[in-house]
Amino acid sequence: MGFHLQTDFGGLPLASPIVVGACPMAMQEQSRAAMQAAGAGAIVLPSLFEEQVILWALNSGRIVTPKEQKILSRASQTRHNWACDNAESYLALVNRASSQQSIPIIASLNGFTAGGWTDFAGELEEAGAAAIELNVHHSRAREYASSQEIEATILNTVREVNAAITIPLFVKLGRNFTSVPHLACQLLSGAQGLILHGRAPSVDICLDSLRLVSRWMLSKECDDVEGLDMLMQVHGYCPAMPLAAGGGISQPDQLIKSLLAGADVAMVTSAIYRNGPDVIRTLLDGLTVFMEQHHIQDLRQLQTQRPLEFTNDEDRAAYIAALTAHHDESPVPATLHCDRWGHPTA
């Protein structure tokens, strides 16, 4: 029996349901070639940030707005963390990667305001991007009057970017929204796919300097799929929205569960950092074995098993059972380790 792993994500045909998430590894030709050889369906390039695009527009002679000028003021603080030095070099990267690889190359934009910078999406399409991922990481709450204003800003940004291109636009959302399923339905007016979820650096407090610090860490290796419940909720409420799962997918079981929960593709990044591009082949081999065991010939047939979700009564019962479950206490370790204040730690 032949097994077909081809899929479609928001109008973008893919040879497999594995998409390499945005990361600096994708800037290297050798890494992209290895990812493609291992079976990746598409590769997302690292993000180009809103302030970089505004700088490009300013250097091109366009007059920037006061709001854009305010955004530019932070460019000196973020410049040393940019994957690409400027927008021109990013366009060259998109053009080079799309010509070297035979799988789709997805450009990534990171911003949170609707403005002239969104026109740059058209430049990315001309450079050869097969699709654009829009990471709508919004700024702090004090800059908005309400949560509705945050969502309205995102919707306006998505519509403006979508109006500037003919290729698919995928929106990457964080977890801090009141109701992602309802927002997903609103995003149908401009987005061809939704990525759940974008990860932000964790914020910590340094007790020595009493300053805030941000740390970016790989997703933790675990048996559970991050956001599986949200995938089911969004797919169940808004089945018309194509979905990408993300957040620590590193094992075949996690890939299969994500596809059954409503995802059309899975974003994989941390697992590639840990185990190299061959982890993609491992994930796809596990998916193929599962399909063979269940006599499933292609991903469209696998999708007929959806939607898998609780009824309201089952959901409530499972919730209460999880909160009231008794767990055996772990034995006290023979060797005690202490924190900086001398208190025992596990």
Automatic annotation (TrEMBL):
Domain of life: Bacteria
A Gene Ontology biological process term: 'de novo' UMP biosynthetic process
SUPFAM superfamilies membership: FMN-linked oxidoreductases
Cofactor(s) demanded: FMN
Protein keywords: Flavoprotein, FMN, Oxidoreductase, Pyrimidine biosynthesis
Record protein name field: Dihydroorotate dehydrogenase B (NAD(+)), catalytic subunit
Organism whose genome encodes this protein: Stieleria marina
Signal sequence region: none
Keyword Flavoprotein carried by entry: yes
Lipid metabolism recorded as keyword: no
Enzyme class: oxidoreductase
Annotated gene: pyrDB
Pathway: Pyrimidine metabolism; UMP biosynthesis via de novo pathway
GO molecular function, one term: dihydroorotate dehydrogenase (NAD+) activity
Assigned EC number: 1.3.1.14
GO cellular component, one term: cytoplasm
